[in-house]
Design goal:
Blueprint (H helix, E strand, L loop, with lengths): L4 E12 L2 E12 L3 E5 L6 H9 L6 E6 L2 E2 L5 H7 L1 E3 L12 H12 L3 H15 L14 H13 L5 E5 L7 H16 L3 E5 L3 H7 L2 E6 L2 E6 L1 H5 L2 H8 L4
Parallel strand pairs: 3-8, 3-9, 6-7, 7-8
Antiparallel strand pairs: 1-2, 1-4, 4-5, 9-10
Helix pairs in contact: 3-4, 3-5, 4-5
């Protein structure tokens, strides 16, 4: 991990009516890092990701990517810069093939269909889905839909990859396989920012963890530091990690 900041938020605020989902959140994500984001349901984690990736506009604060203020950029422009994500609820194009699904993402990076096809095939081969590239997305299991969504993000050739509960709903064997895949992605030089509730996964793969509660950032540090922070134990972990 280098000391170069790739992605940062400064004083981010987002409210929905009287609910302040993200309340004055500031953080830095460093090049080469695997950063975790945890907190109870409703803490504001996905809202923060939506602010970072351009799916929501902040009421206050700024987002910076590779030193550039991207607060006003739309989501597709941020993706082209190298900021890709997966979503908590996987929604593939069910009537398209696996390859076609991944190509839809690749086309956001390049307008050339053949180049998009090559990018998509490369991503599918990397995650081990090349052999099912011609299957309809509707036929995939949950874990394969998640892997396909990961391939879509990789087809953008990102510098930073934000993963929103990629592991949720998987069995222990599938969790281990997904963690191995994330380590391979990280080894390729892609910086990871992960929202996850599976604490074994968070503690096992993240180098540093941010903790949100009621929209605020209440703690950050190494997995060990976070696990022993009284505020975190009270707010999220229920006294047991």
């Amino acid at each position: 991990m280098s000391e170069r900041v790739l992605l940062s938020g400064r004083g981010l605020v987002k409210a929905f009516g009287g609910l302040v989902a993200v309340n004055n959140v500031s953080f830095d994500l460093y090049e080469g890092e695997i950063l975790g984001l945890i907190g109870p349901n409703g803490a504001g984690k996905t809202t923060l990701f939506n602010l970072l990736t351009g799916f929501l506009k902040p009421d206050a604060g700024k987002v910076f990517f590779r030193g550039k203020d991207i607060t006003r950029l739309p989501a597709h422009a941020r993706a082209r810069l190298g900021l890709a994500r997966t979503f908590q609820l996987v929604k593939p194009f069910l009537k398209l093939t696996v390859l076609e699904n991944v190509m839809t993402a690749a086309l956001a990076k390049t307008g050339d269909v053949e180049e998009a096809r090559e990018r998509a095939l490369k991503a599918l081969e990397f995650i081990g889905m090349y052999d099912v590239r011609d299957r309809l997305a509707s036929s995939l299991t949950l874990v394969d839909r998640k892997r396909m969504e990961l391939a879509r993000a990789l087809a953008l050739e990102p510098k930073v990859l934000l993963l929103d509960e990629l592991i949720a709903g998987l069995n222990p064997k599938e969790v281990d396989e997904m963690l191995d895949l994330l380590r391979e992605i990280h080894a390729k030089g892609i910086t990871l920012f992960i929202i996850e509730h599976v604490m074994r996964a968070v503690m096992g793969i993240c180098q540093r963890i941010l903790v949100m509660h009621y929209g605020r950032l209440i703690a950050q540090g190494t997995p060990e530091e976070v696990a022993n922070d009284p505020k975190v134990i009270e707010a999220y972990l229920g006294g047991v990690l």
